Structures are given as structure tokens and as C-alpha cells.
Amino acid sequence: MNAKTSVLILGLMASVLAAGAEELAGTYAVDAVHSTAMFRIKHLGVSFARGRFNDIAGTISLGPDGGKVAVTIKTASVDTANEARDKHLRTADFFSTDEFPEMSFVSTSFKKIDEDTFEVSGDFTLHGVTKPLTVTAELTGTGKDNKQKPIAGFETEFVIKRSEFDMGKMVPFIGDEVRVTLSIEAAKQS
Predict the structure, then answer these.
(1) Which DSSP category does 21 fall into?
(2) Domains in the chain, number
(3) pTM of the predicted structure, to 2 decimals
(4) Residue 31: domain span
(5) For residue 13, is it within any domain?
(6) Other C-beta atoms within 10 Å of 139: how many?
(7) Per residue in 128-184, pLDDT tens?
(8) What are the start-end ranges of the E strands in the chain?
């Protein structure tokens, strides 16, 4: 392959990537049915208990200069497949859902690392406490839904310490570190 052909191929690839970025640009609404906020936490130091939150909402805006993310989760939607445990998690011992009905993440910076990876920093609020949080988010795919509306998927995984959010009840019997996986499908709005 000669230099002229290499430049032509690289130029075509750049055009395709730029077109993909332009196509992805816009504001997306989180599809709660196809999005998941999952967590795992150590129980008695020997096994992991897992759960999820069933009520998630938000928006993701993408543009040539970055993006914005705002996600809200209803804490009362906690679901560990055990109603007695879920009821306890909703009390003042843990999420205190009457006093703190939502947790949220609002981005303050959004940087594209490569074609499918973004570094997103922002403010994470849980149990009335707001802390800075930086995550690496992966673009897991793009396509169209059954109504031909553009959709995109994103996923991130991060660890928080619940004691930093005034939720230290029963540490160390129930672990302090919580691994969170947030997998979002969102439909383009504009």
C-alpha cells in the first residue's frame, strides 16, 4: 500500500467516525424498562448479596464538545428478591427512603477517551450527602428501537463506601464497599 492510499483510507475512516459522532449527538432519555442499576455488597465477609433499583430516570446529552448526564434513582425501588430485607433497607438503618427518596448523579465534566469510552465526573448524592465521583463509561452499542428511533447503550461500574454517605449501619457485618453497575439504554429525543 502506498502513502497516497494510506492517507485516503485514514481520511475515509476519519469521515466515518466523524459521521458516527454527529449521528450520536443529541439528547437521550433513559429507558427505565431497559436500564438497570445493580449493586453487590459483602455479607458477613464471606458472600455477596446483590440487588437492584427498579425506578431509574434521566437524560444523556452528547455533542462534539462533550456531554452531560443526569440520572435519578428512587431509593424505595430497591429490590434484592427478599421482601423482608428490602423493607429493612428502606428504613433509617440504610436508605431512609421517606427522608431521602432519591439518589442522583449530575455530571460536571464529560470527556471522550476513545470511540467508545468516556470519562464522566460529577456529583453523586445519596442519603443527603453529595460527593464527587468520576467514572469510566462505555458506549455499549447504538441502533434503532422498534419505532426506528435512535437508541444508545452505556455502562459503567464503580465502587462507593456507604459509610461516606452516612450509611455505616452494621459495618463490618455488612460490607462498607458497594460495587455498582449502571447499564443504561436511552432513546434519542432531539
Answers:
(1) H
(2) 1
(3) 0.85
(4) 26-188
(5) no
(6) 17
(7) 999 999 999 999 999 999 989 999 999 999 999 999 999 999 999 999 999 999 999
(8) 26-30, 36-43, 47-53, 56-63, 66-74, 78-79, 102-114, 117-126, 129-144, 150-161, 174-188
